[in-house]
TrEMBL record:
Ranges where the Carboxymuconolactone decarboxylase-like domain occurs: 26-108
SUPFAM superfamilies in the record: AhpD-like (SSF69118)
PANTHER family per record: ALKYL HYDROPEROXIDE REDUCTASE AHPD (PTHR33930), BLR3452 PROTEIN (PTHR33930:SF2)
Organism in which the protein naturally occurs: Paracraurococcus ruber
UniProt name for this protein: Alkylhydroperoxidase
NCBIfam families associated with the record: ahpD_dom
Gene3D superfamilies named among the record's database cross-references: AhpD-like
Length: 112
């Protein structure tokens, strides 16, 4: 596993590449930004809960940029490292559950 050692440097580099993509395809970036704003404008979930969900999804989709952005936002929203760890535990368990369920599909496909 190659770990990101400097998340601030990673974030700065990602922002620069984001600016480049925005210049090359501004409508795409506008659409992505609108989607992100819409997802963060909720009536029933508070910011911390949204960010804990986002972190759980970030590890299941293996998205370094998502991890970077949502750890920052979760901490700003008041999430503790222990709360983040619990959210990650839920994601890990769900991934294991999905693998278990798909193992049953394999047995079904293998037949008798």
């Amino acid at each position: 596993m190659s770990a990101i050692k400097d998340w601030d440097a990673y974030n700065a580099a990602a922002r620069e590449k984001g600016k480049e993509l925005s210049g090359l395809h501004p409508e795409l970036v506008k659409g992505f930004s609108a989607l992100s704003r819409g997802a963060s404008t909720t009536q029933h979930l508070d910011a911390k809960t949204r960010e804990l969900i986002a972190l759980a999804v970030a590890i299941t989709t293996r998205c370094d940029g998502c991890i970077d952005a949502h750890v920052r936002k979760a901490k700003t929203a008041g999430a503790s490292k222990a709360e983040i760890a619990e959210a990650l535990g839920v994601a890990i368990a769900l991934n294991a559950g999905a693998a278990f369920t798909y193992a049953l599909h394999v047995l079904d496909a293998a037949g008798e």
